């Protein structure tokens, strides 16, 4: 596929470009904070950058009729509405976490949340010290899956790619559900899987859960 990367100089942008090129895909659009280079029309645009990039990303998707895979976190409700509007024109796959593991945990939480309705719950997340947003997008995704207001504790230390733990406790028991991304390559692999999956879609709003669910059929 011909693809473009928004935030191509960043940690995720560099990994995505390396992985996609290794798999035989061709990078034709490179966008970062103060640079843009385009050599052809991309079929897919992949955005792992910043919330500030979103209006330009949307403009580029419309101009190129390109589908969008977006992993950027810290988006507002208005940003999500703009993406929903865009999904009437092109296909969009948005997720705050492109690992299979977190998306499986989300499925589990959505299915069993009512069993935990009278348990205390807290979310803990740890990320590398360069991460700009706090709490993580994944923590918000987990909170949404449990469908109630949950206290989230965040730490930004060292080079940790992404640790999330959900604790459920009552007076006699503690359940701990944990996920650790061992390397951020797992997110680049997820973005690749998502892009290959989205390529044939015409329009609509999808999440990474749609990709893993198809794999389960
Ligand atoms: N959904 C998922 O699975 C994952 C999501 N993420 C998210 O992806 C995003 C990027 O993460 P990461 O690669 O670690 O961060 P980095 O800071 O390493 O990279 C972000 C890149 O985007 C660039 N950028 C900033 N503003 C703009 C703009 N307005 N237009 C174009 N480019 C811009 C930055 O430039 P500069 O450095 O000059 O500011 C930088 O090169 C974050 O939101 C992060 O939370 C990360 C991992 C997994
Ligand atoms: O910025 C990161 O690094 C990550 N961001 C995402 C988030 O905010 O949840 C996903 C992952 O945890 C890594």
UniProtKB/TrEMBL annotation:
Pfam family of the protein (one): DapB_N
Catalytic residues (positions): 127 (proton donor/acceptor), 131 (proton donor)
Keyword Membrane assigned: no
Binding-site residues for NAD(+), renumbered to this chain: 7-12, 32, 71-73, 95-98
Localization per record: Cytoplasm
Residues given in the record as (S)-2,3,4,5-tetrahydrodipicolinate binding sites: 128, 137-138
Pathway: Amino-acid biosynthesis; L-lysine biosynthesis via DAP pathway; (S)-tetrahydrodipicolinate from L-aspartate: step 4/4
Residue stretches making up the Dihydrodipicolinate reductase N-terminal domain: 1-98
Residues given in the record as NADP(+) binding sites: 33
EC number: 1.17.1.8
Enzyme type, top EC level: oxidoreductase
Domain Dihydrodipicolinate reductase C-terminal: 101-212
Gene3D superfamilies: NAD(P)-binding Rossmann-like Domain (3.40.50.720)
InterPro entries cross-referenced by the UniProt entry: DapB_C, DapB_N, DapB_N_CS, DHDPR_bac, NAD(P)-bd_dom_sf
Keyword set, alphabetical order: Amino-acid biosynthesis, Cytoplasm, Diaminopimelate biosynthesis, Lysine biosynthesis, NAD, NADP, Oxidoreductase
Chemical reaction(s) catalysed: (S)-2,3,4,5-tetrahydrodipicolinate + NAD(+) + H2O = (2S,4S)-4-hydroxy-2,3,4,5-tetrahydrodipicolinate + NADH + H(+); (S)-2,3,4,5-tetrahydrodipicolinate + NADP(+) + H2O = (2S,4S)-4-hydroxy-2,3,4,5-tetrahydrodipicolinate + NADPH + H(+)
Similarity comment: Belongs to the DapB family.
Assembly mode: Homotetramer.
Function according to Swiss-Prot or TrEMBL: Catalyzes the conversion of 4-hydroxy-tetrahydrodipicolinate (HTPA) to tetrahydrodipicolinate.
PANTHER family named among the record's database cross-references: 4-HYDROXY-TETRAHYDRODIPICOLINATE REDUCTASE 1, CHLOROPLASTIC-RELATED, DIHYDRODIPICOLINATE REDUCTASE
Protein name per the record: 4-hydroxy-tetrahydrodipicolinate reductase
